[in-house]
């Protein structure tokens, strides 16, 4: 396997996992109409964990993480996020969405708003943060993702890698306790993948709880404490990265790894 050159050392010493539970999913099932898309999902995520979710296209990875911030409704079982049980109660959904940040493959920035406005919109309108304070926070996170100088531009004027870093900064402005990533680098040109992964590594080093759907196995090896393999709506196997890559247990995992590595 080619080890992804991240361009800097990854400091694992700061990436500590606590005993506190961030997400708990118990016997969860979901259907799209008659299609049983997620089957008996059981997953506990401790605070500080960095989990990579891998698996073939159509295996349910996106649907699983979308259930965690209630972008999709589940029909059976229980999902508890940060102590809040996910139900169709809209109040809960607002609470969960403000604690769980999500970054998508296609950055989903608002094209008619500046970078700064993209970052301040939700804090001002959802969190009722005063504009001035929201702008200060936005600049803080734009500095963190290393593009403060782009604040007054529009998304269309930025590269894909820059837009994705804005999307990450925008999420962080809501001060989430958990970050979900759904193939954040899949739409990027190769030379821009690294800058986004570096941003994600930095977040991991700061102790953020992260669930990342990604095909970047170099990232998984360096940053994840656990890799989860999904196939046909099920969690087939999970392990720490070294074991997962060097000693896969199921035939489906072996086949998948032989195709991507
Ligand atoms: P992955 O992210 O692993 O590629 P998804 O979670 O996107 O998989 O999709 C899992 C399965 O559910 C696929 O077969 C997909 O076609 C189907 N699916 C996803 N979203 C919907 C939807 N809104 N309605 C019906 N089927 C869907
Ligand atoms: Mg997907």
TrEMBL record:
Residues 23-257 form the ABC transporter domain. Pfam families: ABC_tran. GO terms for molecular function: ABC-type amino acid transporter activity; ATP binding; ATP hydrolysis activity. Keywords: ATP-binding, Nucleotide-binding, Transport. The keyword Nucleotide-binding applies. Belongs to the ABC transporter superfamily. This is Amino acid ABC transporter ATP-binding protein. It comes from Aquicoccus porphyridii. The lineage of its organism: Bacteria, Pseudomonadati, Pseudomonadota, Alphaproteobacteria, Rhodobacterales.
């Amino acid at each position: 396997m080619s080890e992804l050159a991240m361009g800097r050392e990854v400091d694992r010493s700061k990436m500590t996992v606590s005993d506190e539970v961030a997400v708990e999913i118990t016997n969860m099932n979901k259907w799209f109409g008659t299609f049983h898309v997620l089957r008996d999902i059981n997953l506990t995520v401790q605070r500080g964990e960095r989990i990579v979710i891998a698996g073939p296209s159509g295996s349910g990875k996106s649907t699983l993480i979308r259930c965690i911030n209630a972008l999709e409704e589940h029909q059976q079982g229980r999902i508890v996020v940060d102590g809040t049980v996910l139900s169709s109660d809209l109040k809960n959904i607002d609470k969960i969405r403000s604690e769980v940040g999500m970054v998508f493959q296609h950055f989903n920035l608002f094209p008619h708003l500046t970078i700064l406005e993209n970052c301040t919109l939700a804090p001002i309108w959802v969190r009722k943060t005063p504009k001035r304070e929201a702008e200060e926070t936005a600049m803080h996170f734009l500095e963190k993702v290393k593009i403060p100088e782009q604040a007054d531009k529009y998304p269309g004027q930025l590269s894909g890698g820059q837009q994705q870093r804005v999307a990450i900064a925008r999420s962080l402005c809501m001060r989430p306790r958990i970050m979900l990533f759904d193939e954040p680098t899949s739409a990027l040109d190769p030379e821009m993948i690294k800058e986004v992964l570096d941003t994600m590594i930095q977040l991991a080093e700061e102790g953020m709880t992260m669930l990342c759907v990604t095909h970047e196995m170099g990232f998984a090896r360096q940053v994840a404490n656990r890799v989860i393999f999904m196939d046909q709506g099920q969690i087939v196997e999970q392990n720490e990265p070294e074991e997962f890559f060097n000693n896969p247990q199921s035939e489906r995992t072996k086949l998948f790894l032989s195709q991507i590595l």
